[in-house]
Amino acid sequence: MSGVTNSVDVRLVTTAFDPAREIAQFTAAHPAAGGVVSFTGQVREDSQAGGVEALELRHYGPLTLPEMEKLAATVLGRWDLEGLLVIHRSGTMQPGEPIVLVAGASRHRRDAFAAVDFAMDHLKSESWFWKREKVGGRWRWIEPRHEDFEDIRRWQ
Amino acid sequence: MSGVTNSVDVRLVTTAFDPAREIAQFTAAHPAAGGVVSFTGQVREDSQAGGVEALELRHYGPLTLPEMEKLAATVLGRWDLEGLLVIHRSGTMQPGEPIVLVAGASRHRRDAFAAVDFAMDHLKSESWFWKREKVGGRWRWIEPRHEDFEDIRRWQ
Amino acid sequence: MALKLVFLGRLEDAAGEAERKVPLVATIEEVFAGLEPELVAALRADRVKLAVNGVLVRDLDAPVLRDGDELAFLPPVSGGAV
Amino acid sequence: MALKLVFLGRLEDAAGEAERKVPLVATIEEVFAGLEPELVAALRADRVKLAVNGVLVRDLDAPVLRDGDELAFLPPVSGGAV
Fold it and tell me: Looking at the 3D structure of chain A, how many domains does it have?
């Protein structure tokens, strides 16, 4: 169960952010946590031909951030965390740019690992983002993958 | 199975290090990885009386780093990683100072989550560090905990 | 007296635009009656969801539309390769 | 002609020092014979391991000691509260 001192910070951002700086600030803000787990997702750089040249994430204002906030509340209720940070990009990104950062701080590391893992699985498969990739100069929309639903089923 | 391009960086350090900077450099060094998972362990700041005033980790030169390197090799053989970073402090630390950083970069995030989680469980319970804490002005050695063996058993 | 339609993801390609104003009608069926048949087929596809003013609607027949309502058509969200 | 003993963790408190030079003898038993009984009890305790020149030794009787050998006594490693 979550204590009274935990904090949650959920952001939907439309410009580049610096995951290392965010992790440093988050860690410093939770001195009572023994451990911080973070996941950073970035646009892959593919050296081979056929790689992604750019990625665009679209969101829907009335739904996307409110649902991210609900997910964060679920995570805080399920694991004992000192703090939870969720930052998700929207807009057009280049290879190497960060897309998402989830960080959890907890007294015992098992909570932070599970919380960040769970949050990522649900952000990936349930949050309201539509993605298209530019490959060979042409944009194409990305459909859901079977694995995403399998990832989520682990938690049910 | 690990590919040919993956890299492993294992360090035993006796002075303070900056986890955020290490994570940033590690992430930048693995552009083909879609995701980076990191765990940072720090000396807890305890606002209550009876908190830890300082922590000392001792290692044994001929064993500690070689065994950390063996653990890293095991992790690389078990999950498909682009890179693995393990930094562990030795010496005397103050509350708020980082003790350990493990980061894994992978194409698919499940590998990085499992690899970092496994590495932490084994670093905590099997690596050659002896720890003492200063509480109320007195140093006392810390004994192994039952939970550490349980953490490890999950992977067997 | 108008409605605003919002097309997310691949539905934007089907509509040829991200948003469209249409005259106010009372039901979704009447909205569909005024659109291109190919677009209607895409909007009616399995797993496309509808939100009216930011609230997900379970039954397409249920809502009674009002002036200024925003109807968002939401295809399945994209999976992640990471 | 000497051996170097290294006491890790709480064994350092039992020995009163982290390292100690002792005269060369051939076996661990003979090393123990030259130490304080309380220290020997601590070194013989369950789960204390021995490394000779950085290599873990399974059987205390096995090694034949040589000049300059380093004998490290390793109590169980500390758990982590994190």
Answer: 1
Give contacts of B35 with chain A, Cβ < 8 Å. 39-42
> Tens digit of pLDDT for each residue in B104-146?
999 999 999 999 999 999 998 889 999 999 999 999 998 887 7
List, for residues D32-53, the tens digit of each pLDDT value.
999 999 999 999 988 899 999 9
Please indicate if any CB of chain C lies within 8 Å of the CB of B80. no
Question: Would you say residue B38 lies in a domain?
Answer: yes
Q: Which of C56, C74, C79 sits opposite A148 (nearest CB)?
A: C79
DSSP letter string, B20-86: HHHHHHHHHT-TT-SEEEEEEEEPPP--STT--SEEEEEE-HHHHHHHHHHHHHHHHHHS--SEEEE
Number of B to D CB contacts under 8 A, please give it.
65
Q: Classify residue A142: in a domain, yes or no.
A: yes
In a domain, A153, yes or no: no
- In D, which residues are within 8 Å of A35 by CB distance? 82
The set of residues, in sequence order, having a beta carbon less than 8 Å from that of D7 and lying 6+ positions away, is D14, D15, D17, D18, D19, D20, D73
Of A66, A129, A147, the CB nearest to C77: A129
pLDDT of residue A145: 75
Global ipTM: 0.89
Interface residue D81 vs chain A (CB under 8 A)? yes
